[in-house]
Design goal:
Blueprint lengths: L6 E4 L2 H7 L17 E4 L2 H17 L14 H7 L1 H25 L7 H16 L1 H13 L2 H31 L12 H25 L2 H17 L8 H32 L5
Antiparallel strand pairs: 1-2
Helix pairs in contact: 2-4, 2-5, 4-6, 4-9, 5-7, 6-7, 7-8, 7-9, 8-9
Length: 277
């Protein structure tokens, strides 16, 4: 039987002080009072979320059905189902990218409260809906009816916008509750992450309008670009792989400049002797 959830109660101002990030400014009077706040470990939240993501990905293959075919026409039937294959791959990688972003977020979280649990549930709800409009869009493209494609584009844009709004809520909860974060996390990290979510809402709405007014294919290109963007920035808007490598290069350069100075000071101290003469 699984262990009961472990809760911690921060009952004093000293405990609240230790839960605050070390590199943050002093909390103002408007910040939440941490006394008697019930916090839980994020492990159960992450395990539950991983289960939802894995089930969502597993069920994607249900939309790829075994085709009915006449003898000698199997290849034609398989080729006719190409939109189903595209929808499966798109949904699989999109849900996988959502999981990567989710893992990156909660690697920075030390405690969970009720508001964070609710925000995470909304994120799981909207993420689990992603395969549905994807399958509808693939079916509309397969049958070649532009009216159906336009409707499915609008539905996809709506679900994508809701998913980005749920990310915005999650980032906002972590922005206004810095006591939930690991001590080394900068308090400006999650406020900056809200820009990624807002950008997603705007792009999904623009893609839906483009598909409605111009062409469904234009909207499709926009929808395909967003998962790529969120995959590249899965570690954060300011902590992409390129940014981290550039920061490492700057650190090494400063380190290389500092080493000769340290060696020179050490040599001078050794020459002067222990008494400084």
């Amino acid at each position: 039987m699984a262990d009961a959830p472990s809760y911690q109660i921060l009952e004093s101002s000293e405990a609240a002080e230790s839960a605050r990030p070390e590199n943050s400014d002093l909390l103002s009077d408007r910040d939440i009072n941490l006394a008697n706040v019930r916090l839980s470990d994020p492990d159960r939240l992450e395990a539950f979320s991983d289960g939802v993501f894995s089930i969502t990905i597993t069920l994607l293959v249900v939309d790829i059905v075994r085709p009915e075919y006449e003898p000698g026409h199997l290849l034609d039937k398989l080729q006719a189902q190409w939109p189903n294959y595209v929808a499966f791959l798109a949904s699989f990688f999109y849900v996988g990218i959502i999981w990567l972003n989710h893992r990156a977020v909660f690697s920075r979280v030390r405690h969970c409260d009720r508001s964070l649990h609710f925000a995470n549930l909304l994120l799981l709800l909207t993420s689990g809906l992603i395969p549905f409009p994807t399958a509808l869009l693939s079916a509309a493209l397969q049958h070649g009816r532009e009216v159906d494609a336009v409707v499915s584009i609008a539905l996809y844009a709506a679900v994508g916008s809701l998913m980005c709004l749920s990310w915005l809520l999650l980032f906002h909860v972590l922005s206004i509750n810095p006591h939930l974060l690991e001590p080394h996390i900068d308090r400006t990290f999650f406020p900056a992450e809200r820009h990624r979510a807002v950008l997603g809402v705007i792009m999904y709405l623009l893609g839906g309008l483009a598909g409605w007014l111009v062409s469904p294919m234009l909207a499709l290109l926009c929808f395909l670009a967003l998962p790529v963007f969120y995959g590249v920035t899965s570690e954060g808007l300011v902590e992409t792989r390129i940014a981290l490598l550039a920061r490492l290069a700057r650190h090494r350069k400063r380190h290389n400049r500092t080493l000769p100075r340290i060696a020179e000071r050490t040599a001078r101290r050794d020459e002067s002797g222990p008494d400084g003469n």
